[in-house]
Fold each of these.
Amino acid sequence: MVEDSTGLGSVMAHAYRGEIDRVGTWRQRLDETTTWAVTLMAAILTWAFSSADNPHYILLIGIVVVTIFLGIEARRYRDYDVFRSRARVIQENLFANALDPSQGTESHDWRAELSRDYRKPTLKVSVYEALANRLRRVYLALLSVLLGAWVFRITAFAPRQDWLTTAGIARFPGIAVIAVVGVFYVALLGVTFWPRERHAKGEFREGDPDDWKETDG
């Protein structure tokens, strides 16, 4: 493409810089959501264990709020993936081919595909896959910490009371609260690890990290 049209090659260079800038912007938004979730979680943990008189269900409220942040971040991840996918298409098919034309392009119709996406931008990743990605990357660990803290709060932190009684909230018996929490976390594990077809555009590949620096000389 660069050989056939210098003007188009220049336009693509500017388009690529624009896509990279948008990738960075959405990456920052993802990080901001995670930062707020971690900050809020730290505040809740500190308050929950500052006194034995503080109710344990503040940790359950923390789980709900962090789950809301998970939903926000999953939505932002879907937008982020749109621009990352475009950047990867350009990298794989334009820059990689310009550096080593003998390997050809990853997709022979990449220009048409990119054109269609510019004409009618579409989300490439489902909500389900976005949730699974953010859970694997960040939120399953955060929610596991809150779960562990809640279990500790209703057991070892209140040794003189029966933990089933301690887990109760107002008129809701402890066994019902524990059942709801258990079902919620089983659902989280299902979303995180259930096998599915991947639609997000991949970047990194496994291999020897020193291979790319090896030379024949």
Amino acid sequence: MGNGRARMSRRLPIIHEITESDAGPYRLERMDLEFSNGERRRYERLHGRGHGAVVVVPLVDDDTVLLVREYAAGVHRYELGLVKGRIDAGETPAEAADRELKEEAGYGARRIDVLRSLTLAPTYMSHSTHLVIARDLYPERLPGDEPEELEVVPWRLDRLHELILREDFSEGRSIAALFIARDWLEHHVVG
């Protein structure tokens, strides 16, 4: 277990049947599964229609990230978070991140690092979001699909402890992405 890569040697459950139905922007699958101990269960999972998403950590310098404030319909309030959005057909995560950054924050990036992918709720959802760090920013705006221009809020990474306690900063991908990015920046050459 010392290397952090220990895995259990269980077989994946056998899928006996999958039935699908439409669930708006998702496809709902009902799976009839049999586990290695003989237990049978029905699981449900959601598949997004599309090519995944990106969450972008845009750095104006080594110590300052750009956040955006936008309306969040799920909680019916304005929420502070990172730039994020869907990957369009034919786009790489890096291209999607640069486009979303231009649409939502009015900046492009000359340096883009795709660090890893994050899941939202892997026990019932297949959706994956690529975590991207964008550096060497320059002003450039593209028209986006937001109904109003988003407020851009610079935030110092050494004040992350204050940000994570704010009521209007609650989105899990943004929180995780900032901690991962901060750690990555501390352990990699930023030059």
Amino acid sequence: MSIRKRLPPEESRMAALEAARALLVEAGPQAVTLKAVAGRIGRTHANLLHHFGSASGLQKALAKHLAETICATIREAVIASRSGIGKPRDVVDLTFDAFDREGAGALASWMLLSGNEDALDPIVETIHDLVVDLEEYSSDAQRSTTLALTLMALGDALMGGPLAKGLELPRTAARDRAEQMLIEGIATQQATQAD
């Protein structure tokens, strides 16, 4: 008989979110169930219900967790890019990867299709907080660029491969266009600040 170590509530919750994230990347959003996550971390379904309330609660918590960890990385890349250490492409790749390889695009779509109407709230709130945190860069133009970049990354994650192929464009076409958009936005902002 194995004895499970009792974890503090926050550690138990974090272990569940990390297991959910792994399931999302490995098998897609439909695999992120209370039962699958509980099995992965050696906990009970009831334990996860206690922490998340429902499968949609788990998915919403996962979306928030993904958004927070990804936006923290994007924040660092934006600061590096603005200071000349990084490149706009770093910001583009991190954003696109978040929605594609990290599964945020598939998760958001799955939650919306499953009737979880407030599915995007954690993602939207975290992106908003990121823009506010970088307030010296958050002009109307910068917020508009953030919107376009996020929507491009989401769309690319959902259908970028087939669409690029159908249009006979390289798979990186959307990323390339997003990078150009960021470069143009930075140039415009620098010109405005110089005036």
